[in-house]
Design brief:
With 126 residues, this protein is mostly helical. The protein has one domain (23-116). It is 67% helix and 0% strand. It has helices at residues 3-6, 27-54, 61-68, 70-90, 96-118. Helix 2 runs antiparallel to helix 3 (61-68) and helix 2 runs antiparallel to helix 4. It is elongated, with a radius of gyration of 23 Å. The relative contact order is 0.09. The mean pLDDT is 83.
Length: 126
């Protein structure tokens, strides 16, 4: 007799109602920790680049880094902030509507920042 079709017999354990997760921690917690670490590392590098740029050290590399890395820093900051809000509201119970409700405004904010960064109307006149 197949226990999956007819239920457990006397003395047998029930199968878990949810499938086994291969992740030892929830993905949102892992991404939150990873984005926090990367955000702080990248933010610190921007601080160092600003100090080097203001003191005329390092040539053009600090200015180039501050021009190139602005959108990745914004993406990491939005990911870290969005996951912080999601995790504080979800109480470790995954919720797809909550993820969409938190993620969509952050994605739109990043899209607007990227649009402002690359659209020629907002670029300085040469």
């Amino acid at each position: 007799m197949n226990p999956h079709l007819h239920g457990p017999s006397v003395g047998e354990e029930r199968l878990p109602s949810r499938p086994f997760s291969v992740y030892p921690v929830p993905v949102s917690r892992y991404l939150h920790t990873l984005s926090a670490a990367l955000f702080y590392l990248m933010g610190s590098s921007f601080f160092v680049a600003y100090v080097l740029l203001r003191n005329d050290l390092g040539g053009t590399a600090p200015g180039l880094w501050m021009n190139v890395g602005d959108l990745p820093l914004l993406a990491l900051g939005l990911l870290y902030g969005g996951l912080s809000i999601y995790r504080s509201l979800s109480d470790d119970h995954p919720s797809r509507p909550l993820a969409w409700g938190v993620g969509l405004p952050f994605f739109l904010l990043f899209f607007l920042a990227a649009l402002a960064n690359f659209w020629p109307v907002f670029s300085p006149a040469a």
